[in-house]
Amino acid sequence: MVDIHCHILHGVDDGSGDMTDSLEMAQLATGNGTKAIFATPHCNMPHYFENFWSTQLEQKLSDFQRKLDGRGVKLKVYSGQEIYLEEGFLQLLRRNELITLNRSRYALVELDFYERADEAYKKISALVSEGYVPIVAHPERYAFVAEDKYAAAKLRQLGALLQINSGSISGDFGTKPKRSAESILKNQLADFVASDAHSQYSRTPDLSQAHEFVCENFSYEYADLLFGINPKRVINNDEIQ
Ligand SMILES: [Fe+2]
Question: What CATH architecture does domain 2-235 belong to?
Fold first, then answer.
């Protein structure tokens, strides 16, 4: 499995606090079948996490990979960001102050949990017209998606892909996101399931239960697509239909 959304890089946001946390998260992930992870710190969140891409972040990522390799932890870490779609995101992307997943066409993006639907659609369309493929992080957690059964399909029609959180499937965020995640999965609108892990204790990078859920309730092929095939296409910047 490849996890395209994980707050495993330490000391940059509300995810991993230090290198020990990051290493423990990595061990938990590999122990449960994850071979590669995209480190996706929150960014472009005014007053909270700016994390504009920098040589320091690049360095932090390679230091982490070196540490993993040195300890024999078989995990490949790719660069990325979870881009908060606050004003100015297009200019920041053009200037490489915000980056896509492994510098591919795929940008992992998040919205305000109470974003208005029309605003969300406008932002997604702006990214698509600029040539990016937005991957909407945890659509099931947004009010406009949970409240409108056509919203997930609309996002995909506009050119976005959808990434469900493993924690939503297990009910960690309550019944509404769980129901919404299941409906997106059932309607074959999901493109990825990722951990959005923040720690080794809660909201962890263990994807095994979510993988099992998709296998048991849908199919092994669907699980393979969401946890393996599509994430690998992102790594290689290959097209996702
Ligand atoms: Fe996240």
Answer: Alpha-Beta Barrel (3.20)
